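Archive entry. Fields below.
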Amino acid sequence: MDLALAPETLARWQFGITTVYHFLFVPLTISLAALTAGLQTAWVRTEKEKYLKATKFWGKLFLINIAMGVVTGIVQEFQFGMNWSDYSRFVGDIFGAPLAFEALIAFFFESTFIGLWIFGWDKLPKKIHLACIWMVSIGTILSAYFILAANSWMQHPVGYKINAERGRAELTDFWLVLTQNTALTQFFHTMTAAFLVGGAFMVGISAFHLARKKHVPVMRTSLRLGLITLIIAGLGTAISGDLLGKVMFKQQPMKMAAAEALWDGEAPAPFSIFAYGDVEKGHNKVAIEIPGLLSFLANDDFSSYVPGINDVNKAEQEQFGPGDYRPNIPVAYWGFRWMIGFGMASLAIGVVGLWLTRKKFLLSPGMRTGEDEVPNLVLFKSKALNPRLTTWYWIIALWTMAFPLIANSWGWIFTEMGRQPWVVYGVLRTRDAVSPGVSQGEVLASMITFTLVYAALAVIEVKLLVKYIKAGPPELTEADLNPPTKIGGDDRDADRPMAFSY
Amino acid sequence: MELHNVWFVLIAVLWIGYFFLEGFDFGVGVLTKLLARDRTEKRVLINTIGPVWDGNEVWLLTAGGATFAAFPEWYATLFSGFYLPLLIILICLIVRGVAFEYRAKRPEENWQRNWEQAIFWTSLIPAVLWGVAFGNIVRGVKIDAEMEYVGTFGDLLNPYAILGGLVTLALFTFHGAVFAALKTVGDIRARSQALALKLGLVTAVLALGFLLWTQADKGDAWSLAAMLVAVVALVGAIGAIKVGREGWSFALSGITIAAAVAMLFLTLFPNVMPSSLDPAWSLTVTNASSSPYTLKIMTWCAAIATPLVLLYQGWTYWVFRKRIGTQHIAADAAH
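PREDICTED_STRUCTURE:
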């Protein structure tokens, strides 16, 4: 059979497409839930209208986004059974448990309380309504934790034994699966990266409005919140990335060697800035490097030995039998670089932005026409240059919205493709994991269907987001400012239209 | 009771929960075309399930996840075997979820009509396909010695399974009509009642046929008892809606669903997916299940989480207990 259209290849493409697509929505959902909850908390505590407006504005964008996150998540759960039935049979005893926990503990939480939050504005007292969005936020984070624990087990299987009689892996220590360092560092890294997405989203959209001097009080607050989120999350992503890298150097040396295009082990090992190589022959033709840095990243020591691709390949051949144990090296190498590059660029833009929006850069009192003047961002002696540089920052800020999403996607592609040819590292090969009974035509049909449906939904989603972004925060009504005091709503006017309806 | 038997029961309970809950929101989705006279009435219907459909759907995700964890072989055989029907269901659930959230997000009539069409079809198709799927599971499908499904898509479309699909469609639509009568006021409530009565009679005929067929084919004393409960509850539900007792009717139509699903699971046990090629190749609660250790952990999780879920989901229904009518739909958004 033509390898390019083999069910295994198609199933992998489908998994890649559906997962990367799903993960465009997930990080934004996780971070926006928490940021919206934070804004609503600010409103409940201070009763300042700008916080309520901000809550409603970001909350609406959050809802448009979470709808996609939820529906694309359903596919993820069933895809294992559909395309990867031998995987499911082999690891279900272990992998199924965190998935079931996710459903029982996190999904129910999230989906039930989101209904309460959406429809509860005129049915719930202020503080209970606020608690609902926090519940949603907790639900999204718990969900991420369980799924990352499951994924970490595929990266670094622990707490199991092989039952030869049943031909499968069986769980022996669930606590270890949930708390192994791979799971914890991956969770830390993915969470911080998620907040990078939310921070950049807030910064970009606030910049869009501020550049047009619209909705200034709400957007200035949002901009600062976004920038602070961007910085904290950016630093967190860097720290957790370093920790995760060290864990991976130990657990998956092949993946990290591929990420660095380090063909042969060296001591000290250099960090690669740019490399162009020959995969067949196993060496680089062009390499620009920083000496010793890779040793430091791997082992906290500038002169330590780091094994290369060829060394690990040989070691794995000795351990697992003949074969090629190298992942797609250009994908791993460049995926790793796009991830770090775009992630760190987001952090840099956050730092610059926060510095530029200090109080000092607000227009001086004499120049202001109103309380809520847009900060001029840059105050040079040359007055002509100030607005121009400010405009540039707004434009860059808008582009920043895409950066963490690119970083996230490449991060996942790197993590998953860097593990190949294994689906469970050192235990189960990807080619042994596909559904034997599913035909090429079936996988092809489903891959095409999902791709088309997802593409159509992407167009719809983006258009809706743009519409609501442009519309800006809503005007508040009497009902918004006077929430009910009773659960189930007041009886003040039984025939009053609902505050929110589909 | 051994843990794999406990999990067989729990998975039956999850499916009962799913069909009880999403059953009525599928039904309401179908009714948007059968019952609503104008756009505002359509919105009333959609909003009766607005706050709860998402939580209802999680019962399916939990049933899927629990099957994966407790009976990996069952999960693998079922979802790789019923590949295309499952694909259609997934696409429907994707479009349906988006349809609810996006329908009112733009004022254009065209936009809203398209999503309303989507809500109708994506409620109707899964309502049928779940019945077809369960009909096939109970009847037995071509499973080989390797636990792989070796039949075709066409094999799944046999008379028994198709009747099963019609039963779930009718039953869910009836259940939805009773729910709509329970949750609305005014003219639409009266019409929901009248329609529920008719739907109830259609359901009764179809369901009786399907359940008797099942009983004759696979039944024992236990399944007979479940069948009798289902039939009596259905008759009760129809009677209650006739005299305007919507709450009772809804509880009874729910019991009908619960008892009918219980009957299917009772006829399965101890199989989870019988093979029509050779009974020795059937998937059973023992050869499809996870290790005792995994089942033990899952049991603890379920024992703690399930009561909590029931508590807060129940609370949601309490918060949104008020009936709604056309007057509750804001005029400015009623495009």
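CURATOR_NOTE: Chain B has a mean pLDDT of 93.
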